Request: fold
Amino acid sequence: MRLRNVPGAREVMVENEYVFTEPEGMCGTWKEVFGNDNPIHIEIGMGKGTFITTLAGMNPDINYVGIEKYSSVLLRAVEKQDELQLPNLRFIRMDAENINEVFGVDEVDRIYLNFSDPWPKDRHAKRRLTSRQFFARYDKMLKKEGRVEFKTDNRVLFDFSVEEVKEAGWNLVECTYDLHSDERLNEGNVMTEYEKKFSDMGNPICKLIADR
Ligand SMILES: C[S@@+](CC[C@H](N)C(=O)[O-])C[C@H]1O[C@@H](n2cnc3c(N)ncnc32)[C@H](O)[C@@H]1O
Reply:
């Protein structure tokens, strides 16, 4: 994602009631944050947040937490949430490397990864959100019946991810190389910003779902 520094974005994040900027140590507190026992779905690398904000509006009985590394990107989602005030939506500004300091054992019901950064160099493979190192982190916080859903148009990253699911000892429950042509898997699909951009350019969208 091309990054434009937005002056004041950091300050907005620190003061906004829907954003956590120092989330380390929040393990076990999420029921309290939302004031209910509803399932928790998270999106890691949410960008400007269209996907998670749409889902939160559609599903008031699910709590959503969007995670994004950069304030300048997150700002758009926060401005939208300031208008909508969805009670079931929060954001965290953080690098997901430390995700196990934020969500405790069995605290999360679903993890969405959409158009994650590819980190093309081999020596950076462990930074990919679908690497075995990240699946080990997800294993700790995801409920037994929980799942990871991943979409991308990047075939190299997708092929890597399919291998990593197996390498991590997870099951590949669903796998398509052309989501938008797959009537069953595409039902109810909510497009992300990148998904719209790349499918408009004619790129097929790959999707996998993994569980244990
Ligand atoms: C290519 S964009 C995709 C945005 C959005 N998910 C979509 O599909 O439109 C990837 C986003 O993930 C964020 N990101 C990448 N690695 C991250 C990490 N380790 N922790 C948190 N956010 C991350 C980037 O800052 C960027 O905003």
User: Anything to note?
Assistant: The first helix runs from residue 9 to 15. The CA atoms of residues 63 and 147 lie 15 Å apart. Helices lie at 9-15, 30-34, 50-58, 71-84, 132-141, 155-167, 183-186, 193-200. The chain has a mean pLDDT of 96.
